[in-house]
Design goal:
By secondary structure, the chain is mainly beta. The protein is built from two helices and 22 strands. It has a domain of 45 residues. A four-stranded antiparallel beta sheet has the order 1-2-3-4, with no helix packed on it. A four-stranded antiparallel beta sheet has the order 5-6-7-8, with no helix packed on it. The chain has a four-stranded antiparallel beta sheet with strand order 9-10-11-12, with no helix packed on it. Strand 18 and strand 19 form a beta hairpin. The longest helix has 20 residues. It is globular. One of its GO terms (biological process) is endoplasmic reticulum unfolded protein response.
Length: 300
Amino acid sequence: MDFSSNGKYLATCADDRTVRIWSTKDFLQREHRSMRANVELDHATLVRFSPDCRAFIVWLANGDTLRVFKMTKREDGGYTFTANPEDFPKKHKAPIINIGIADTGKFIMTASSDTTILIWNLKGRVLSTINTNQMNNTHAAISPCSRMASVSKDGTWKLWDTDVEYKKQQDPYLLRTGCFEEASTMPCRLALSPDAQVLALASGSSVHLYNTRRGEKEECFEQVHGECIADLSFDITGRLLASCGDRAVRLFHNTPGHRAVVEEMQGLLKRASNESTRQRLQQQLSQAQEALRSLGALKK
């Protein structure tokens, strides 16, 4: 699954040969409507929106390659989905673990489980081949900001600041380390909130939320899917976390994220030097407290 960059849609793919586009404004309603794109003669295992939300790409399970779908808005507000006439050529020799589109929209990344990462242009030509020189790749992603999170088999998760000057041979800064006991039991999935305040970790069918400022676990949702969780993702506001793993997408309120904002605003208010700054910080604090109050999660 993947959230669109404008925050309006969530795309999910499944082995029923469809990609469904869901409206995020319906998430808290009883009814959830979706638009359907058919994947002819195959099914998608991965889906990613383009940055301008005018297209999406899928990885084809049987074809072992990429297919591009253009999204054309209709007068009634819906969309028409049209697949490009030709799929990308088959280049990978090992199974694919992830795909992504650069924020510029000019490049596509595909990573396989051997040591190969390919960079493509939008017409399906390979621009660069990257050999990671590891035993094998376990994950690869395109960064939307300057923060990174990782989790290891020994149960250690780490938060890094990768916004460094690589030309001066600076290394990423380790900001925080925490312990995830369930990491060694089965494959993990992780997601970092847009403000990097909350780290979501999934193992099996359970989701765990950590405060990255303190390194502490704040929430745990047990057995939320009938199968192992396949993907985790925060929406662009950071208020909701989505997970998928069976025939459903589960949505969770990011209460640790609201609590982190409360902690941060309270600290900044103590150091605020002028009234306009205090008013702005107080407004953000009040909004976060109100969100927690509405969820019944405000700590007294």
